[in-house]
């Protein structure tokens, strides 16, 4: 859509269009961050060690910090946070010996980062 702009108003017209684009990009990026956070949560729940299932069900996503231009989400275990490190990296047993760790958080984080990057690229290209 072509607009005729006088040379005196060119800077103002360019700034207006850039502001509109930035607002659209911000909305898309916030949606991508939320989607990536939920994906990480689901992957952790799917690959977490299951004894009773309470640990895998305890994972949740919350908005940690949100401004008009940014969003930060945290994926965390609501009431079984003490187990996360022990299950991820292993721990010593009471009678001696060690329990090997079962990596379930790190792979989900890696795939969440990749998904976020690809989703942001897709949104900006289609934007």
Q: Helical proportion?
A: 55-70%
User: What is the percentage of strand-forming residues?
Assistant: 15-25%
Q: How would a textbook summarize the main sheet?
A: 2 strands, antiparallel
> Could you say which overall geometry the principal axes of the C-alpha atoms support?
rod-shaped
For the biggest β-sheet, the strand order reads: 1-2
Radius of gyration from CA coordinates: 22 Å
Q: What is the tally of helical segments?
A: 4
- Average pLDDT figure: 89
Main structural class:
alpha+beta
The N- to C-terminal Cα distance equals 16 Å
Which sequence of SSEs, written as H and E, runs from N to C? HHEEHEEH
Low-confidence stretches: none
By DSSP, the count of extended strands is 4
Protein name: HK97 gp10 family phage protein
